[in-house]
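Q: I'm teaching a short session on how sequence maps to structure, and I want students to see two examples side by side rather than one. Could you give me a first protein with its sequence written out and its structure tokens following it? Keep the formatting plain so it prints cleanly on a handout.
A: Of course. Example one:
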Amino acid sequence: MYELRGGGAPFKQDSKEPNNTLTDKAGHTVHMLGDTASVWAECHARQQAGELFVGVASRCDDPAWGHECLKKFLVAPGISMMDVVTEARCEIHGGNTQANLRALQQKTGVPPARTCFFDDQSGNVADVAALGVHSFLTPNGVTRAIFERALKAAGPGVSMSTTGPDAAASLSCLDRDTRPRKRLSFGSVQLWHFAVILDDSKLPHDGLSPLGLGELQSADEFMLEEYELARASTRRGVRHVDDFERRGLLVGYLDQIDERALAALEVVEAANRQIRGQNVTTYERVDEEGQEADSTWDLLRRDDKPTAVKPPYTTADEGASRDGVGGGFHERDEDEEVRRKARALADKAATDSRKAERRRCAGCKRYACIC
């Protein structure tokens, strides 16, 4: 519903309008998440009509703060959140959320199959789902879409053995021993889009660069059905490995790949070409029958005429040379020994200098004197 940032009571109402905000003692603004205000207003109207009950089962380190916020958050003109739930159906305590909801169910008499629970913490959702209620994870607060889904899931005529997209979040399913267990599922999907960073300071011999995640570009939230439909509509068969320019991943053996993954591979391919300064594509060499060859080589494609290059460099033999940077083990050991001796001489000179500055006079025992 809302998130407290630790400033504490007293909380000041910033306005008397619905969906208002509060200010805590430290000056932090506290606001309702998602569509909480409008959803609570609808729940209030339905509760007045006898269609449902609204209650609060929450785990809070300071229950008094939670009670005060419920009294000062307005969901309709002159109607606070506490007016909707009343003190009798408000279970805000420390400890376990499951125990709070169990106490609330004993007061209302609503069976688990007709109960919906919303929380932004996955641990609380998992605990409450064990009771057999319809549990929904709402990291951005209760949204209108999730609320409508919850009403449909817990509506009259819905059996707890129902399966499918409209089933409850904690439907029972059968395992190998045909014993009923609880299954937890969620109604929404969040996609996080990051900028791809190519770390060219750690390039292997073939020029491939490790991938890293940069700044967050965007974050989108979709209902599960919408996400699956959109993903299914953008999937297509992969081109044959011979005409697919790939980089370290044999995508030819994948059955399907979506447009987003294909676009990511094309971006990496273009970046690798720019780093190496030439049109180079890595292929897995196959023989004439289409089977994988005994050894794997990197093939440079220039003007569509692949030519074999030298196998990867190895320093297994002492004194082996390397085209580019560095040398064999022997040469590197010699360079390291020279640098080690230079560092030892520099450390000894610095130590002697410090000792000379702190040398005491034999006569007066002072560090500096005019004897």
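Q: Perfect. Now a second example for contrast.
A: Example two:
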Amino acid sequence: MKIERGDWQGRVPKVAGGEGRDVARWSTLRVLTGVEVPPNCANFPAMVLSTSSPSWLAAALALFSILSLLVPANALYFYVEGRQPKCFFEDLPKDTLVAGKFETEVINQGSNTYSVDPNLKMLITVDETFDNDHRVVSKRENNSGRFTFSAADAGQHRICFTAETDATSGGWLSNSQGAVKVSLDIAIGETSKIETEDKDKMKDIVQRVRDLNSRLHDIRREQVYQREREAEFRDQSETTNSRVVRWALIQVAVLSAACAWQLSHLRSFFIKQKLT
């Protein structure tokens, strides 16, 4: 590649046939030419790249390679040796959401390739090492699955994966080293893509819970209404009973007065009859 040195004018480097570029162009220049560029571009002479097509093609490929390295990747894979657990340690703040998904493959001893084993089981455990290995998650999945948990307290958490089979004794897993390949994609935080489906499920569950809460509130309001009606009916019944008792007492008093008057009248009548 042809490189021409310009004057010391404190300018950003220029590409032949174009205007000034940003400072990030120096990283591409360093990859293509091997020239060590000072951190301060203002103290470096301006350079002009030749406009030949191969140079621009190489620059484009190099730039694409650099940009491809900037893409974040959270996926990893590891090998499980027999029934020995493979563990990872992570310091998590309180109330941090951790979501992950995994897939497993079993080695084929004949062809030295990996394939999916439907009989394989994976045990996922999460322990709080700061709290006497208090276990917060213990989940048994098939050859692939998901797990999600939220850190109840801040501290170091141990996430372990253990391969299991339905066989009670012996088998390929008992004497094979690195027989299970586990592809793990794990994300920490609310903004990860892994828990999107889980969030959708959680949203569905949350919506159902909200519907149930609404129904419970309706039932509660109905119960309060029935209690109010019961209180009104009780008050009305007590009023009716008091009126019945009052009228009964009035009737007894009237009857008693009538009886007393009749007795008094008969007595006076008999007395008059004897006197006559």
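Q: What should students look for in example two?
A: Point them to this: Residues 110 and 172 are 12 Å apart (CA to CA). Also worth mentioning: The radius of gyration is 45 Å.
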